[in-house]
Amino acid sequence: MRQRATIVSRLRRLLGNGPNLQFLDPKEAYDLWAETYDAADGNVLLHTEERIIRPLLDSLHLADAEILDAGCGTGRYMLQLLEKCPRRLVGFDSSLRMLDIAQGKFASNSSLSLVNASFAKLPFPSGRFDLILSTLAVDHVPGLAGIMRELTRVLKSGGRIILSCFHPFGALAGWKRTFSVHFRTYAVRYIPYSVADYLNAFSSAGLTVVRVEEPVIDERVKHLYTAMGKEDFYERSKGHPLSLIFVLQKAIS
């Protein structure tokens, strides 16, 4: 087993660099990734982001709330949100395959609705949601200011948005958002928005920044890099931020 794992790690390293790395548009990438997305135990980005997002969600009183999971994918946070007893949890995504996986996991829950939609024009009435969660999704979509205005439109007065993205440092460092399917590694195209881009988009949408987090590569994820045969990358990158997380609030009108 150890020998096989070593071979897989070497293949990932060989196929995950240079001209062998194939870049895909987000919808195509997530359709391809859907079947194995929930098994991505080695995805360091997800691990570092979740150690901030999950305690944040635990701290919120969401009983009888209307919640939107924007760019929900396979529903990474849906079980946790449903356990908070919301009146309604709505998830949308542009990838039908990701939604199919989510539907298979949560089909029996009457509080959940899943919708195939995009950030550009949300099919929801203004002022509907108490909380919007959007994780690792908005930086796949052009027009950040318009995205934030549209999310704010469907948010209730005084409501909050929890938003995460790939840290802008990653783009400067040349890091890719990669995944592997059938021993081939792909990269998902994304837009390297700067911190200023985010802050200006929030301001133009009428949102106030309540909290900012920058989870970094540290000892808690060292074992994941070791399992992938990327100890050298870990040593070069520890202490660097991997994701950027905002808690935002809409003004009370």
Protein traits:
alpha/beta; 38% helix; 253 residues; disordered N terminus; seven-stranded mixed β-sheet; three-stranded mixed β-sheet; Rossmann fold
The string of secondary-structure elements, in order, is: HEHHEHEHEEHEHEEHEHHE
* DSSP strand content: 15-25%
What is the distance, rounded to the nearest whole angstrom, between the alpha carbons of the first and last residues?
A: 60 Å
Q: Biggest sheet, in brief?
A: 7 strands, mixed
The radius of gyration over CA amounts to: 18 Å
Q: Give helix % range.
A: 25-40%
CATH architecture: 3-Layer(aba) Sandwich
The SS-based structural class is alpha/beta
The tally of beta strands, per DSSP, is 10
Give the C-level CATH assignment.
Alpha Beta
Mean pLDDT: 91
Counting DSSP H or I runs of 4 or more residues, the number of helices is 10
